[in-house]
Write a structure and sequence with these properties.
Number of domains: 1
Distance between the termini: 70 Å
Shape: globular
Number of strands: 2
Structural class: mainly alpha
Largest sheet: 2 strands, parallel
Number of helices: 7
Length: about 140
């Protein structure tokens, strides 16, 4: 191979190695529950599941006063794993991942967090990027 051709090949290889891969560009970024991490439909489905699968032992009010105090600052993955590993009490882990995610979406909405355009994922890898936070106070200092 001629020196100039070799140099051109080397330069092209170096350029390819220095360019970030497309997969890196598409890595999901961390998000807050304040930004709308679930859909209306998903939360509605979560309410239905809550009533059928959780309602025998739990009431929505059980998850309103202390829920965000307990989970704020943790990831949705931690909540997802906790619920999946312990609920329903008579058969933990028996729901589909999407069903557990829907119940979590319902609980987030119940606590005043906004809905968004995309459903809360059921992938623990992606849920690790969702930070649970209390809703932002409105302009008067109150919660929505």
């Amino acid at each position: 191979m001629r020196p100039s051709l070799r140099l051109a090949a080397f330069a092209a290889a170096a350029l390819l190695l220095a360019t970030p891969s497309r997969a890196q560009d598409e890595d999901p970024q961390p998000v807050s529950t304040r930004t709308g991490v679930f859909t209306t439909e998903q939360a509605d489905r979560g309410l239905e599941l809550f009533e059928v699968r959780c309602g025998e032992c739990h009431q929505p009010a059980d998850f309103q006063e202390t829920f965000l105090e307990s989970w704020s600052g943790q990831t949705a993955d931690a909540l997802f794993r906790d619920i999946r590993n312990t609920m329903p009490e008579d058969s933990p882990g028996s729901l589909k991942g999407s069903e557990y995610a829907a119940v979590i979406a319902f609980l987030l909405r119940l606590n005043g967090l906004p809905e968004g355009a995309e459903a809360l994922p059921a992938s623990t890898r992606r849920l690790k990027l969702v930070l649970i936070e209390s809703p932002q106070p409105d302009s008067t200092g109150g919660l929505p």
